[in-house]
């Protein structure tokens, strides 16, 4: 199976590594600049943080995607804010099946822009974090996999079988979900409050207070309630039952938040990305606020965290100086 991973960040590199474990796959990675040169010369090097091992894969790379190039599946792993620039390139390509991987608040719009049948476009979220440093990827996960499905409907049997074939024999869990537009919006309801606290603590989540840990989950609950008010069919079993105060699910999430703010997991899984992807988080914040503007949902915990962080203008300026 010919597979293209379009984007060589942490998500794309981990995905390319996993797909390359299936000997029936021919995997190509779209990368650019010095990072492409590094992969070409030294191989795709990944330090699997929790597993205490390093892998090196020889994965061929390309720098551009030509319209006539055809792949059995194209996995798109660029940040959501970068998609408007590359969607015309993807739309013109002759490949049939595309999977957009990562946080995406506009799944329906992306589906429409691709001008493909709905059963040829999927959206997924891969459960790893990390960063790039010293010529390698640091990838953090307890067990790698992807939640994947159509924008608002289950994937066709053909698409599911194609994905299962791509990961055949690979330690990679596929979880099929029927409404990824809902799933991804609900995911942002948790991710954004965590990012607000990251910014308030200047990237050091160990400085987060007990009150901020509580407010992150209160805000996630408010975010889901707002999405419901906006007409999003929120899956309560997967979301609100974990955020509502005094419930078993909330107690589990309280423990997770404590671990995240008191161990290196917080830096590797949240704050590293938040501090190095300010433009992406700003994009998601604006998208979420646009949905909120269509409702009258009170979100006091959300507003408290959002107001405690520096302004987006300040954060964007800092990120440019950091680069």
Automatic annotation (TrEMBL):
> Mind telling me which SUPFAM superfamilies this protein's record contains?
NAD(P)-binding Rossmann-fold domains (SSF51735)
Question: Can you give the residue ranges of the Ketopantoate reductase N-terminal domain?
Answer: 3-148
State one Pfam family annotation: ApbA
Protein name from the UniProt record: Ketopantoate reductase family protein
Q: What is the organism field in this record?
A: Faecalibacterium prausnitzii
């Amino acid at each position: 199976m010919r597979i293209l991973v379009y984007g060589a960040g942490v998500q794309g590199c981990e995905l390319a590594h996993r797909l390359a474990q299936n000997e029936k796959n021919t995997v190509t990675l779209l990368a650019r600049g010095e990072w492409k040169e590094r992969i070409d010369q030294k191989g795709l090097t990944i330090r699997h943080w929790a597993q205490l091992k390093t892998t090196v894969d020889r994965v061929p790379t390309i720098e551009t995607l030509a319209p006539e190039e055809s792949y059995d599946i194209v996995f798109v792993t660029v940040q959501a804010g970068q998609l408007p620039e590359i969607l015309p390139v993807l739309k013109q390509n002759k490949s049939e099946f595309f999977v957009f991987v990562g946080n995406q608040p506009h799944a329906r719009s992306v589906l429409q822009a691709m001008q493909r049948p709905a059963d040829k476009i999927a959206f997924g979220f891969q459960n790893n974090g990390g960063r790039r440093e010293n010529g390698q990827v640091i990838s953090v996960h307890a067990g790698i996999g992807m939640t994947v499905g159509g924008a608002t409907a289950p994937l066709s049997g053909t698409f599911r079988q194609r994905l299962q074939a791509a990961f055949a024999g690979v330690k990679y869990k596929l979880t099929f979900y029927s409404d990824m537009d809902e799933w991804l919006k609900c995911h942002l309801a948790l991710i954004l409050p965590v990012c607000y606290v990251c910014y308030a603590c200047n990237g050091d989540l160990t400085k987060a207070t007990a009150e901020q840990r509580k407010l992150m989950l209160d805000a996630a609950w408010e975010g889901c309630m707002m999405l419901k008010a906006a007409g999003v069919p929120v899956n309560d079993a997967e979301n609100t039952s974990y955020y509502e105060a005094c419930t078993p699910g909330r107690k589990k999430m309280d423990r997770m938040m404590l671990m995240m703010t008191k161990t290196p997991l917080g830096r590797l899984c949240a704050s590293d990305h938040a501090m190095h992807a300010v433009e992406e988080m700003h994009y998601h914040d604006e998208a979420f606020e646009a949905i909120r503007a269509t409702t009258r949902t009170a979100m006091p915990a959300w507003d408290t965290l959002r107001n405690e962080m520096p302004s987006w203008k300040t954060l964007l300026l800092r990120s440019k100086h950091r680069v």
